[in-house]
Amino acid sequence: MVAVPTPSSAHHRKSWAAAPDGFFEVEAAGLRWLGEAQPLGGARVVEVRGVGPDHIDLERLHPARPTPEAAEALGRGLAVTHGAGAPAFGSPPPGWSGDAWIGRQTQGNDPTTSWGRFYAEQRVRPFVRRAVDRGHLDAVGARTVDRVCDRLASGDFDDHRAPARIHGDLWSGNVVFTAAGAVLIDPAAHGGHGLTDLAMLALFGCPGLDRVLAAYEEAAGLEPGCRALVGLHQLHPLAVHAASHGPAYAVQLVESARAFA
């Protein structure tokens, strides 16, 4: 995606002439939905200044050195944002229906009552199939991941937590630390499980990760042992990368899946 300079230094434009229908509109809807939690103490989200079929205009951010205090505030803010909730697992941002994207790959957002069924059928299996079709994942590895998906779909990993309002693509590149704290950008927002956001931060690294996790766990009241499930919540981003980036991620996907098969 190309950043195009605009006349005003107060915002910047991301554009893509070949953007599929709705690509930038769903990003804007997700940012606004996540941003609704800010007045309650939720994580700060970049402000949308305008959106069109081939572009989105966003508040211009000025990166700064991450601090431990900013990491802790991010953890607490994420807990509040997640706690703002969603109508169901897989619910899209309000006012949006149809395709959603993670990066430039499509994924579904069909509301589902069970987190495990949603996660297996809409977040892991579709990308496993793409990875196999592209020759990045062999049949043996795919069967290992499918066994975990069977367990997910049957509810083995469901808990009592209501659907969370999650960012959905929360790798470190989508967290911009500024002088005023961390700001979230580029979401794939939907109703999910809060651990999914934390798992992606852990997978790809984040400044002050331990402080983020500790602050989140305290604010969200997570049960002891929740970090043992982080690998389960990393299956989606690993499957996405196996489909788009090749066999190295497929190896990591299968290794992570073995712990839960």
Describe this structure as you would to a colleague.
By secondary structure, this protein is of the alpha+beta class. The protein has a single domain, classed as Aminoglycoside phosphotransferase (APH), C-terminal lobe (Aminoglycoside 3'-phosphotransferase, Chain: A, domain 2, Alpha-Beta Complex), CATH 3.90.1200. Helices cover 43% and strands 15% of the residues. It has helices at residues 23-35, 68-83, 115-133, 139-153, 194-204, 209-220, 230-233, 235-245, 247-258, and strands at residues 2-4, 11-15, 44-45, 48-52, 55-59, 100-102, 105-107, 164-166, 175-178, 181-184, 190-192. The strands form 4 sheets. It has a 4-stranded antiparallel sheet with strand order 1-2-5-4, covered by helices on one side. Strands 3-10-9 form a 3-stranded mixed sheet. The protein has a two-stranded antiparallel ribbon with strand order 6-7. A hairpin with a 2-residue loop joins strand 9 and strand 10. Helix 3 (115-133) runs antiparallel to helix 4 (139-153), helix 3 (115-133) runs parallel beside helix 8 (235-245) and helix 4 crosses helix 9 (247-258). Belongs to the fructosamine kinase family. Pfam families: Fructosamin_kin. GO terms for molecular function: kinase activity.
Key structural traits:
single chain, 261 residues, alpha+beta, Aminoglycoside 3'-phosphotransferase, Chain: A, domain 2, four-stranded antiparallel beta sheet, three-stranded mixed beta sheet, 15% strand
